Amino acid sequence: MKIILFRFEKEKIHFLECTINSGNLIFGEKEKISLESAMNKGEKYNKILDEISHIQTRYSPSAFAYQSPQKCRGVIKDEEGFANSAILNLYCYQNNLHILELTLVTVREKLSISNKDFKALLEKNKNEVLKNYSIAKSDKLLDGLVFLFSLKETF
Question: Domain range for residue 110?
Fold first, then answer.
């Protein structure tokens, strides 16, 4: 299963091509797209839609996944990141594509484990991702990768 993992920031889109095969997580291309050239929000949202369409055509993923800017349900800490994620949701809805929102709550519920066990699993998986993959601790996609790594057996 090929998944494109996104993380949206105010003026950037980070994404990574990942393949999950027989419980193994394999990284592909990793890129960053700047949104700074957009003159207004409408132009910015059109650019996001164009970039997502280009990514879909280029990689033909089975699903899109994104690190939610919401840390917990009902709380929006990053309005711009939330709006950008909403554009991804709209694109997936309009194109009948599978999308996975990666938050602490949604991943823990999918794994059906206690909060204490989940926190221990995330820490263990974070250390394993940092050790076995060429990714920095400061990488913007690290949390999403840890979530995907934790879910790899469920795909």
Answer: 2-154
